[in-house]
Write a structure and sequence with these properties.
The complex is a heterodimer of chains A (111) and B (116).
Chain A (H helix, E strand, L loop, with lengths): L2 E3 L4 E5 L4 E3 L2 E3 L6 E7 L6 E7 L6 E3 L2 E6 L4 E6 L8 E8 L3 E3 L3 E6 L1
Parallel strand pairs in A: 2-12
Antiparallel strand pairs in A: 1-4, 3-9, 5-6, 5-10, 7-8, 8-9, 10-11, 10-12
Chain B lengths: L3 E4 L2 E4 L5 E7 L6 E7 L5 E8 L5 E2 L8 E7 L2 E6 L8 E8 L7 E3 L3 E5 L1
Parallel strand pairs in B: 2-11
Antiparallel strand pairs in B: 1-3, 3-8, 4-5, 4-9, 5-6, 7-8, 9-10, 9-11
Classes of the chains: A mainly beta (111), B mainly beta (116).
Chain lengths: 111, 116
C-alpha cells in the first residue's frame, strides 16, 4: 500500500527563521513522483515541485529547497528565512499507482 | 507545463439541487483523472479514479450514486453532486494524469462548494 506521512501537524516560527517540513512515503512502485503543494488560506493548491523517483538531486528554488533521499523514503522541504506570506498548509503527495496526499503541515510564520 | 482547468472555482447551491464540476486537461490527453474532497483543515481524500470511456472506481465510503463521475473524453471529466446537502459542502479538486500507469499528474484549481 502507498502512504505519505507528514508527522508535523503544525509548525510555528518567527519570521526569518528557517523551517523544514518533513515528508516520509511508502510505496512498492519503482517509478513514482513526489510533489509538494502549498495551500494558502484562499484554498487553491499551489504547485511547488515535482520530483521523479530516479532523480535524487536536491533542488533549490529561491528560499525553497528540497532534500530527496530514497534510502530513507523522505522528501523534506526547507524554507529559508521564512516570511509571513509563507503561512499556509503544505502537502506532500505521492503519485504511483494511486495519487495520495499526506495529512498536511500547517505553517504559521509570525512577524 | 500541462494545465488542468477546473470550473467553477466556487459555487453556492440550495439543498436538494445538483451541481456539476468540470475538469479539463487543456493541452494534453488525460487517460486518468482523480477527484478529491477536502474538509476544512483536513487533507485531500481521494474520492474516485476515472478512466476515459469506462466507469469510475470509487473509494470505500464514497457513494457512487451521489457523486456521479463521467469521463467521456480524454480532456474532460465531470463530477456531479446529486441532491446536494449541507454536509456535501467541501473543497473538491481534480487531477489529471497524462498517461497510463505511474506517470505524473497535474491538478486543477479546486472548487469550493457551499450547500445552503
Amino acid at each position: 500500500a502507498q502512504k505519505v506521512t507528514q508527522a508535523q501537524t503544525e509548525i510555528s516560527v518567527v519570521e526569518k527563521e528557517d523551517v523544514t517540513l518533513d515528508c516520509v512515503y511508502e510505496t512498492r512502485d519503482t517509478t513514482y513522483y513526489l510533489f509538494w503543494y502549498k495551500q494558502p488560506p484562499s484554498g487553491e493548491l499551489v504547485f511547488l515541485i515535482r520530483r521523479n523517483s530516479f532523480d535524487e538531486q536536491n533542488e533549490i528554488s529561491g528560499r525553497y529547497s528540497w532534500n530527496f533521499q530514497k534510502s530513507t523514503s523522505s522528501f523534506n522541504f526547507t524554507i529559508t528565512a521564512s516570511q509571513v506570506v509563507d503561512s499556509a498548509v503544505y502537502f506532500c503527495a505521492l503519485s504511483g499507482r494511486e495519487l495520495i496526499f499526506g495529512a498536511g503541515t500547517r505553517l504559521a510564520v509570525h512577524p | 507545463g500541462a494545465v488542468v482547468s477546473q470550473h467553477p472555482s466556487w459555487v453556492i447551491c440550495k439543498s436538494g439541487t445538483s451541481v456539476k464540476i468540470e475538469c479539463r486537461s487543456l493541452d494534453f490527453q488525460a487517460t486518468t483523472m482523480f477527484w478529491y474532497r477536502q474538509f476544512p483543515k483536513q487533507s485531500l481524500m481521494l474520492m474516485a479514479t476515472s478512466n476515459e470511456g469506462s466507469k469510475a472506481t470509487y473509494e470505500q465510503g464514497v457513494e457512487k450514486d451521489k457523486f456521479l463521475i463521467n469521463h467521456a473524453s480524454l480532456t474532460l471529466s465531470t463530477l456531479t453532486v446529486t441532491s446536494a446537502h449541507p454536509e456535501d459542502s467541501s473543497f473538491y479538486i481534480c487531477s489529471a494524469r497524462t498517461g497510463a500507469g505511474r506517470t505524473e499528474a497535474f491538478f486543477g484549481q479546486g472548487t469550493r462548494l457551499t450547500v445552503v
